[in-house]
Write a structure and sequence with these properties.
The protein is an alpha+beta fold and 238 residues long. It is built from eight helices and eight strands. The protein has a single domain, classed as Peptide methionine sulphoxide reductase MsrA (Peptide Methionine Sulfoxide Reductase, Chain A, 2-Layer Sandwich), CATH 3.30.1060.
């Protein structure tokens, strides 16, 4: 919790010193969203009703909130991936030396939204994939851009999509997103879940995460859902 208070206090002081700069910060973040092409390579339609994607792209509050507002997503849980189970705690991960990244486990119905479309939202709205080991005001390897594929098919789709976007020069800088297979996901503490919904007035949320929801609604109106799918009590097991 100390890290949360420090993060909020630092940003709040900055906004107060800058007067009305809060809206400028939010606007500058929103302008980084990109309307990008869908992946050419995607998973085939099948009979599965549930699939899981684990993605890291900076502070998990905003990434979780984005996918909670996506049609076809049945659950989005904030957590950690990339390190060992005994270091999967917020205060420890925040040291930046555990190998973990703040991540979100996204469960979705592949009959309604494909893994490729999940990645399209991830690259275009949820974060900036050209920022190395940082997002917005957050710095460290725990904020890196990383895809944790559940299987070889997901890994192949992710690799092909990164290559596709790079060849199309969609972004002004190179994509630095890594693909790290075979890394278990560990749910974060309960106070991190549904953070945007529970704290919509937080200075950090207002400046960096609410603009992502607006961009999701604007760029993907067919996939946007107004009411988020929230974390159910007792659903935080691995």
């Amino acid at each position: 919790m100390n890290q949360i208070f420090r993060r909020g206090a630092t940003l709040l002081i900055g906004l107060l010193l800058a007067g009305g700069a809060g809206m400028l910060i939010a606007r500058s973040h929103a302008e980084r969203a990109h309307a990008i092409p869908a992946p050419v390579t995607d998973e085939p339609a099948g009979g599965e009703t549930t699939e899981v994607a684990v993605l890291a792209g900076g502070c998990f509050w905003g990434v979780q909130a984005v996918f909670q507002h996506v049609n076809g997503v049945t659950s989005a849980v904030s957590g950690y991936a990339g390190g060992e189970p005994n270091t999967a705690q917020y205060e420890t991960v925040s040291t930046g030396v555990t190998g973990h990244a703040e991540s979100v486990r996204i469960s979705f119905d592949p009959r309604r939204i494909s893994y490729g479309r999940i990645l399209q939202i991830y690259f275009s709205v949820a974060h900036d994939p050209t920022q190395l080991n940082r997002q917005g005001p957050d710095r460290g390897t725990q904020y890196r851009s990383t895809i944790f594929p559940a299987n070889a098919l997901q890994a192949g789709i992710a690799k092909a999509y990164i290559a596709q976007l790079g060849e199309a020069r969609v972004f002004s800088a190179a994509i630095v997103t890594t693909i790290e297979p075979g890394r278990p996901f560990y749910p974060a503490e309960a106070y991190h879940q549904d953070f945007l919904t529970r704290h919509p007035g937080s200075p950090y949320i207002v400046a960096y995460d609410l603009p992502k929801l607006e961009e999701l609604r604007r760029i993907f109106p067919d996939l946007y859902r107004a009411d988020p799918v929230l974390v159910a009590a007792g659903s935080l097991s691995n």
